[in-house]
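Thread title: Can someone regenerate the structure for this chain?

I was given the following input by a collaborator and told the matching structure tokens would be attached. They weren't. Posting the sequence so someone can regenerate them.
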Amino acid sequence: MNRLLALSVLLPIFLYGSLQAEVRSIQIEKREPVLEGRAFGESGTYEKLSGTITFEFDPANPLNHRIVDLQKAPRNQRGMVEAVSDFMVLRPEDPAKGSGVALLEVSNRGGKASLSYFNRAARGSNPVSPEQFGDGLLMRRGLTVIWVGWQHDVPRQPGRLRLRVPAATNGPDAIEGLVRSDWTVDRPSQVLHLGHRNHVAYPVLDPDHPDNVLTVRDGRLAPRRVVPRTQWRFARLEDGQVVEDRTRIHMPSGFQAGKIYELVYRAEDPRLAGLGLAALRDVISWAKHDPACPFPIRKGIAFGVSQTGRFLRHFLYQGFNTDEQWRQAFDGMLIHTAGAGRGSFNHRFAQPSRDAHRYSAFFYPTDIFPFSGPVQTDSETGLSDGLLAHFHNPKHIPKVFYTNTSYEYWGRAAALLHVTPDGSSDVAPHPNERIYHLAGGQHFVSRFPPSPQAKLSDAVAYRGNPLDFLITLRALLVQLQQWVRDGTEPVPSAYPRIDQGTLAAIDQIRFPHIAGLDFPKVIHEAYRMDYGPRWRDGIVDFQPPRRGSPFARLAPQVDAFGNDLGGLRSLELQVPVATYTPWSLRSGMAGGNDEIADFVGNYLPLAPTETEREKRRDPRPSLQGLYRDKSDFLSKVQEAARSLAARRLMLQEDIAKAVSRAEAQWDWATGSHPEER
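Best answer:
Regenerated them for you:
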């Protein structure tokens, strides 16, 4: 057989290769130099390719049997199931000058984050400006950067990458099933969208079907109360008029702020969400093994953030790292801020955007056993399983970095990565795994200095944690590239542990009492969930699922400042001017005020003087008590930065920036009074 390679919409179509892999054809719609031919050190110039890739998946191949409903998908004349993905690639114009290693980012909800995470660049869906390429670290490292759409339901917005997949059918008949949506309503509204974060929703099949049930409750575990069907309908508001809409619900009296609403409804035509897992597998194998690929590589590293970090954990658990020709797909993975979760990536009526937090998106199949790489036994259920237990060939287990901020311990159950299900003891990672706790960080880096609007009313504290863990992440990526390419061992795992007293139940955490700031009484919980008798086959029968007992709930212990112990401690924690909490309470909201806010933490600057510290009744040291003056502070910062660089936890080129950022925090903390900003 032959593949098709369309080099552009204006160039002729060329035949190439044998059709043993899944990539059937590629159409390059645009090809352009990066930054008008600017050279990135020894890697030389780069070019950007964008277009679409057509995949074929063989339902008869045993490597595809885990794709839910693949046998029920329509087939082309060759008996294959097709899907089409958007893609973008940044590649060295001269491959010989590159490293031969690709960084394939699994796009979070169709976006692109790699350049902002590693190049310190401004984020954009189509990077073209110098600001959107930042300092060029990925290019200077000679990496080919690949983005390929994998998610079928991303919002219909320009620049979002998506995978177009077929629907499963029972021959001539449509497949029906139950879908669930939920909302934490913080502001009154008359209309709610069925899709998560404005993603493309499954429309209701029959608006009048008795299976369509809306409930309301007062808290995450509070009893559900059915909302009478006469009080709501499937509709939206358009110019003040009610218009029928099968992807929205409308309530004339309004959905009340402070309540949690949940809708279970009947839909049809489930999309083959699991094809996204196979598409990522196949594009990296194609780039590694087929010389006709326009972005050839020798090694591949997958990078996922949050949702797509969970996607990669799901990818590992379901054994997708062996391609159809029984070859290893990815050589390495950087799985960032995924906690211990997986997600809705390969089941019937899957909604891949659905996650799970303490007070939003409840009880989707995200935080479900198993959590750790090695096999463990859940003493309560008797189940034995491990994230890496289902590989067709154990030699295909990639080299994996798990990097989690402290928020993931509070909001994503990250401790379950490395403790027993009951939380009684630590568990060592697999030899191919490294686990790194980016101590003190929240889910993403907040702006600095904080805005006056971010100030919490009753404390010298600000919502939004600016601890810059990206400095550490850049250094870790370099280590992962060296481990994959050259076999150079990375630094050992570093995470809070039970046996070292750096991981504890939250009622045992010794957080200092700071006037006006309440410490959380709750933490995110992963439960033993029952999705129904066909869940192992990828079909959810129980909507909502039946909740069992929770797994262990543990978080990092803190020092006298309230900053996290254990893990990789950055400059901000080694030479502190503030407390960086990975949690923030939903204070001031209509409901759930004692619950944890999604994603964000707090920033609590230390008092600049002893007089101010005593006035605040702050148990933490003041800056005056810690450092003789600014010169003493900067001397300690520079010493700590050099130590981090010597331990390969900061790039030499990042020392000056890290010191400059620390100086800015000192100047801000010792300038005009924080309460006056």
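Residues 119 and 268 are 43 Å apart (CA to CA).
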